[in-house]
Specification:
By secondary structure, this protein is α/β, with parallel strands linked by helices. Helix content is 48%, strand content 17%. The strands form 2 sheets. The protein has a 7-stranded mixed sheet with strand order 1-2-3-4-6-8-11, sandwiched between helices. Strands 5-7-9-10 form a 4-stranded mixed sheet. Belongs to the enoyl-CoA hydratase/isomerase family.
Amino acid sequence: MSTHSSLLSQVEAGVAWITLNRPAQRNALDIPTLKNLHTLLDHYEVDPAVRVIVLTGTGRSFCAGADLAEWAEAEARGALETYGWTQTAHALMNRLYSLNKPTLAAINGTAVGAGMDLTLCCDVRLAAQSARFKAGYTSMAYSPDAGASWHLPRLIGSEQAKRLLFLDELWSADRALAAGLVSEVCADEQLLSTAGELAARLASGPTFAFAQTKQLMREGAERSLAEQLNAELAAGLLCGRSEDGAEALRAVMEKRAPVFTGQ
């Protein structure tokens, strides 16, 4: 296991586990944490031993969002608009969302503001029964600043997104599941094992095809159907020419389970 002052990380059987580790601050995101997490994602993206990334938190909160103590210090010295949190957070959110490898958020408690936004950048979200979701912006007289206004309408629809953002409601895990904000809710004590089982399934899968699928889905909203079909054709050719594609065909012919390498 490797450690930063605010992060824990380890790789096991193709799964990289990243744990936000500022429990006294409810895992709030200060600039060093944002930068360390960005660096770690860059490293895992190119590490062939990593096939899936899981993000979770230490303690009772997944992430409380921006570090308000750092925010207040910047305001006190007249640097609130220039001290760099927003730009650093935006770079991280873009990095997490654009990763080729599958990402999974194991949400162990309250996810507020940018903490919620961090989960929205992941491919799959699992929530502990005690998890809670809150946008946090309008209660502070702010509009969203870390991607919520982009992700939420796409994930849960415009009306539900406006309700969550305008009213700043605290959503339970079950309400988040009903709205489509998460894909599964499990008992608190089962969160990491459930996340580990799903991550293992993804890690054993054709991760090259997963990467092509992620890119198609990211870019598809900007294309017409005809353009998307052409993009699917190009991606399909790449998959068919990959080692995983050849292995899948061999496995079918040999009547066995395929062994994918992500190549």
